[in-house]
Amino acid sequence: MKVTHALHYGNGNTQYLPVSRGRPSARPPLWILILVCLVCVSLIGAYVYPPRRYSACYFFSSRVCSPIMDWLPPIARELTDDEIASQVVIKEILSTPLVQPKNPKIAFMFLTPGSLPFEKLWEVFFLGHEGKFSIYVHASREKPMYVSPLFIGRDIRSAKVVWGKISMVEAEKRLLANALQDPDNQHFVLLSDSCIPLHKFNYVYDYLMGTNISFIDSFWDPGAHGNARYTEHMLPEIEEKDFRKGSQWFSMKRQHALIVMADSLYFTKFKLYCKPGFDGRNCYADEHYMPTLFTKIDPTGIANWSVTCVDWSEGKWHPKSYRAVDVKYELLKNITSIGDNYHITSDEKKVVTLTPCVWNGMRRPCYLFARKFLPEALDSLMQLFSNNTVI
Ligand SMILES: *[C@@H]1O[C@H](CO)[C@@H](O)[C@H](O)[C@H]1NC(C)=O
Ligand SMILES: *[C@@H]1O[C@H](CO)[C@@H](O)[C@H](O)[C@H]1NC(C)=O
Ligand SMILES: *[C@@H]1O[C@H](CO)[C@@H](O)[C@H](O)[C@H]1NC(C)=O
Ligand SMILES: *[C@@H]1O[C@H](CO)[C@@H](O)[C@H](O)[C@H]1NC(C)=O
């Protein structure tokens, strides 16, 4: 396989081949010469133009291989059957204009272990806007007890979710599948039990409906919490240069939600090879699958930041969580006025990239939602919302 492959790329190198000017008397049969030539062309071809970076190193010792291979420009790789199939489906979904429904809605999808501590706040947020939203709840541990009629009957069939494992992504896919059943749903927002809205409903609705991009967090992180989680088992479809990281809390347009439904190629790679403890590393599929998928298939169709704010600035294993005493008008004002998103790499350089939040050519506030708020913050938040301090 690899030999024929290499032959295909090796065509330009025939000048290095031994030309057949052997002794005319003891000339070996022509077919042997041709065979020897073919083998030579293949080997030279495989060496100079590897079909992909690592496979050529099976032929040669890595000591010879790596320094030379590093100098070479990458070459186009032949797509696998699964990739060709996946590309036609994805291209078709992206290029087919969607039928605009008369009443476009936003699907709010809650991924929670049980009851929603901020149900009352969300009720205030939703009330009066019936017909412009739909709610879906995936409760993975226990059946939530609701007080608001808006939430009653909105649970979808759910399954156990283990933090950092593929079951997290499977739950996200389950929410998307349920929400896609309603053709009016045009935008799909993933929220956790600790998420709160930062604005009133109309602001959020206009913001999301006014754009045709998805807010999927994605960045290149060469460090310990980024590319160190990558494994070559993901080759050939996912190369290390394609591997991205980002927070799981997405907000995506319908076409992108359909692509998540259609994708089994990339999903399977993450299911098999991106998990805690695999191949001596801890990979968390929910932080890498969607950023990698969308950066690969539609990089300009995503914003590269999430509209859900979370504060990692304390540099701890978990993000900052907000208690009742933290909730003040000033805090909401601070978060809602943020106009740049930033990413920090986890390598020694700790490179910070600050990117202005821009879509349709205009600068915007980055965030519509925030986490993580502790349940005790509910009353203060309710006050802020009822005081009309939130716009
Ligand atoms: C998204 O909207 C912008 C501005 O309205 C437009 O220029 C762009 O072509 C649209 N992109 C897609 C993929 O529809
Ligand atoms: C997101 O990042 C990719 C590169 O990873 C880039 O091609 C794309 O333009 C970015 N999207 C926006 C909206 O800037
Ligand atoms: C809001 O931001 C200002 C300036 O960054 C900071 O000094 C202040 O402590 C922040 N307030 C809250 C409540 O986070
Ligand atoms: C909301 O308004 C009430 C009554 O005017 C006031 O007592 C309270 O301090 C306000 N709360 C906030 C968080 O501004």
From TrEMBL:
InterPro entries xref list: BC10-like (IPR044174), Glyco_trans_14 (IPR003406)
Residues annotated as transmembrane: 30-49
MF terms in GO: glycosyltransferase activity
Pfam families assigned to the protein according to its UniProt record, in alphabetical order: Branch
GO cellular component: membrane
Intracellular or extracellular location(s): Membrane
Its membrane topology: Single-pass type II membrane protein
Keywords from the named record: Glycoprotein, Glycosyltransferase, Membrane, Transferase, Transmembrane, Transmembrane helix
PANTHER family: CORE-2/I-BRANCHING BETA-1,6-N-ACETYLGLUCOSAMINYLTRANSFERASE FAMILY PROTEIN-RELATED, OS06G0661900 PROTEIN
Identification of the protein by name: Core-2/I-branching beta-1,6-N-acetylglucosaminyltransferase family protein
Organism: Zingiber officinale
